[in-house]
Specification:
Elements lengths: L1 H12 L6 E6 L2 E5 L5 H16 L5 H6 L1 E5 L5 E5 L4 E5 L9 H16 L5 E5 L5
Parallel strand pairs: 5-6
Antiparallel strand pairs: 1-2, 3-4
Helix pairs in contact: 1-2
Length: about 130
């Protein structure tokens, strides 16, 4: 609910009132905006996410900018506060012939974004050869 609200608010704040926002499943969403608005929209989403997510943490964890918890192996571990990773694929360059190619590009760029610290936006910059 929080993420979907942030996506809606951010697209409205950047005058992307005709943006398409869809829920893929779990914590995965798709936002479609004109190519020239992608960076501004991603920046607005990131900023609003960062400003609001802190409210979900207790004051001590928020001040430390991390939490202590148990990982999947049952070991105590320090985790950073939640962030948002965004992948952008520009369809205006005509690089893709089939939807599966777009899907593969999204997965590749999403992996790159998740490898960046904090909230991040990675953009696929492929162009037709």
């Amino acid at each position: 609910m929080y993420t979907s609200q942030i996506l809606k608010e951010a697209t409205l704040s950047t005058n992307d009132s005709d943006a398409f926002i869809g829920h893929i499943g779990g914590d995965d969403f798709v936002v479609m905006v004109p190519s020239e608005r992608a960076q501004a929209t991603a920046d607005a989403i990131s900023q609003q996410f960062e400003e609001g997510i802190i409210k979900f943490y207790n004051p001590e964890d928020a001040a430390a900018k991390c939490i202590q918890s148990i990982n999947r192996k049952g070991e105590k571990q320090t985790f950073p506060l939640m962030s948002i990773s965004m992948a952008g694929v520009d369809l205006s360059h005509g690089c893709y012939q089939q939807y599966i190619e777009v899907n593969e590009a999204c997965a590749e760029v999403k992996k790159r974004a998740k490898g960046m610290p904090g909230s991040a936006f990675a953009l696929d910059r492929r162009r037709r050869k």
